[in-house]
Amino acid sequence: PPAQSASIPASAPIEGVGKVIAVASGKGGVGKSTVAVNLALALQKNGFRVGLLDVDIYGPSLPTLLGLAGRPAVRERRIVPLEADGLRVMSLGFLMEDDTPVIWRGPIVTGIIRQFLRDVDWSGLDYLIVDMPPGTGDAQLALAQTVPVDGAVIVTTPSDLALIDAARGLQMFKTLNIDVIGIVENMSYFVCPSCQSTHHIFGKETVEAEAKRLETKLLGGIPLDMAVRKGGDEGRPVVIAEPESPVTKAFLELAEAI
Ligand code: ADP
């Protein structure tokens, strides 16, 4: 159980990396990977050098979201991350055949995550953003025990269903002694393109209330926007595809808040 294992100290920091930030969620499908990618790109726009590590072992999305394929090279016994839009990226997706289900037990997952953190050449980064699998499990534990994590960002939608699990995810990071930077409210609202009125499809002000209850910050809200979904499916994230759009502005503000 996390509480017991949390006492094992994380080993040395990753050489040449400023901050390690985990992007996590309680549930799948709330937009965690989408936020991780666009947040990474927004941080880069703000002048930082950023890497993106996908440890969502059972559902690696970064290759699709970034339109990236190929096998990472090995140089001087280090794995060289692939590059997309200036980001350095590593994902299990690069090492798998399409459609192959991954059936691994915890120790294998732990081993792969250790390798991704220790054997990949991440040197020269201000931020390494880690896209976690949803929930509370082996990957979270493996990350916490392998490197010092500077902070966790929890992504949720305003729906009660997502929020209940987000709270659980947040508590787990606290148990692992990882600082929770705050909560991102994704799919926060929808602006109707015909009438310009705002609709709070998944609920209103629920995340703000929950953040207060959990003694953390609401870092910002990202609207439900067709351009976000389209950018993800086409492998051209909205921060790149539509740099002047309101949703890109929301991601830039989010990057400022971190
Ligand atoms: P998770 O990593 O939490 O499983 P994803 O990032 O894969 O979620 O997103 C799930 C789906 O929702 C994707 O199709 C993505 O394009 C879409 N999506 C995520 N955030 C938004 C948003 N703000 N507006 C529109 N679509 C979104």
From TrEMBL:
Entire protein: shown range: 109 to 366 of 392
UniProt keyword list: ATP-binding, Hydrolase, Iron, Iron-sulfur, Metal-binding, Nucleotide-binding
Gene Ontology biological process terms in this record: iron-sulfur cluster assembly
Family named by the database record = In the N-terminal section; belongs to the MIP18 family.
Q: Spell out the molecular function terms from Gene Ontology.
A: 4 iron, 4 sulfur cluster binding; ATP binding; ATP hydrolysis activity; ATP-dependent FeS chaperone activity; metal ion binding
Highest rank taxon of the organism: Bacteria
Quaternary structure note:
Homodimer.
Which residues bind ATP per the record? G26, K27, G28, G29, V30, G31, K32, S33
Q: Under what name is this protein listed?
A: Iron-sulfur cluster carrier protein
Q: Where are the transmembrane segments?
A: none
Q: What does this protein do?
A: Binds and transfers iron-sulfur (Fe-S) clusters to target apoproteins. Can hydrolyze ATP.
